Amino acid sequence: MQLDRLSSFPVTAFDADGALALGAYREHLRHQIDARPAALFAACGTGEFFSLTLDEYAAAVRAAVEEAAGALPVFAGTGYGTAVAKQYAAAAREAGADGLLVLPPYLIKPSQQGLLDHFRALAATAGLPLIAYQRDNAIFTADSAAELAQIPGVIGFKDGFGDLDLLQRIMAVAPNLTYFNGLPTAEVTARSYAAIGVRAYSSAVHCFAPEIAHAYEAGLDELLPVFYLPLVKLRDKGAGYAVSLVKAAVRRRWTDVGSVRSPLTDPLPEHLEELDHLLEQGLTLVRKQAAA
Fold it and tell me: Residue span of the signal peptide, if any (predicted)?
């Protein structure tokens, strides 16, 4: 799998009653696949993994696999405690996923040994390649990361913590893993991560403006002050906007993917107006660059 570029983390569509809307979800997936990211990461953070029942999760992952049809790999999220994570991993395997993004365990802050035990248990039963997601309550030391990298089936390490000193020490002792920048609005830090050899990253912007995402990946740095930095400022105006703002942008530009599920809330109307303005600024810059 060539995962050294940006990947798409699609949103999960719900209807007006809050039920899973597979038709709208599949339409959204087709937009993503047509833009040719490195991979699809279905039912992960942006896809509201934490809000999905096991049956909904299985249906969402299966839809992503069917729409991708082998054109690009599909990874699915898994999380919570080890026993529950195994259930989601099994559902992803049965749905045809190519791998798993292992989200931090629910609520508690485990010890380093606990984190490693969690991954060993998943690796022993999941039957799929695993990517560890370092963030929040799942922060590895360099010594633990070296052990993690020796667990059969663990292939990747996504960093959402942002400590580049720690990450470089981890990379030095675990060179066999594929590394990803997993910070929110990863484009803002993409150049810094690339400087230490981490070129792959997760792009939430790809969900609603793949042309902007790919233009920035290709070197259109003017997008940073015009689009990305203002987007981060807007994202920080509301709790949960890293998900709900992205979903609102998909809804307004492409497909009616519905609202976020509680406890998340949709963006305020004035913030949606700001979002529309930023999107137009970004698209205008991309069009000018393409016409030059």
Answer: none
For 46, left (φ over 0), alpha (ψ -120 to 50), or beta? alpha
158 noted as active-site residue: yes
* pLDDT at residue number 1: 60
The amino acid occupying position 65 is V
pLDDT at 143 over 80: yes
Beta-carbon contacts of 189 under 8 Å, excluding residues fewer than 6 positions away, are 162, 181, 183
| Whether 153 contacts 165, CB under 8 Å | no
Which one of the listed residues 25, 88, 133, 241 is annotated catalytic? 133
Per-residue pLDDT, averaged over 171-183, amounts to: 97
Looking up tokens 């365990």 gives 105
In angstroms, rounded to a whole number, what is the distance separating the alpha carbons of residues 32 and 65? 13
Burial 260-270 (b: 16+ CB within 10 A, else e): bbeebebbeee
Mean pLDDT of 40-61: 97
Is 233 assigned a catalytic role? no
Residue with tokens 């529950």: 84
Q: Note whether 94 and 88 are within 8 A (CB).
A: no
Tell me the β-bridge partners of 178.
156
> What pLDDT score was predicted for residue 3?
86
Please list the alpha-helical segments (H only) found in 16-100. Answer: 22-34, 54-68, 82-95
Catalytic residue among 158, 179, 201, 216: 158
